[in-house]
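Hey team,

Filing this mostly as a record. A colleague (T.K.) asked me to run one chain through the structure pipeline before their review meeting, and I want the input and output archived in the tracker in case anyone asks later how it was produced. No errors, nothing strange. Just documentation.

Input sequence:
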Amino acid sequence: MSEFVVVGLVAFALAAWIALPLLTRGTPDAVGPQLTPGTGATVEEKHSIYRSILDLELDHSLGKLDQDEYLRMRSESEAEALAVIAATSLEGESVDDILEQEIREARERLRRNK
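Output structure:
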């Protein structure tokens, strides 16, 4: 019986040790800036889209995606990002310019973090 308690405590401690960094992780600031005054969910959604665009670029550069597939998927991802940016209604700036600027900044942050 006491062996089960010890094994249970060790398993719990191991699970807590593994889960703690995942649960305390902050927002994905390393991927992109928070230029928008929108909700956290919107910012997180935008960062997720940026990560997918960067992943597409990597897959294309490694030859995992052909040019047509890459362009189609990137276009879809950019449309999603533009919709999120438009939903946050930044005044005075083109959503296309904001998208490109944020993707450039995400690339720079990822390079610095390597």
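Quick notes for T.K.: The chain is about 75% helix and 0% strand. Residues 26-38 have pLDDT under 50 and may be disordered.
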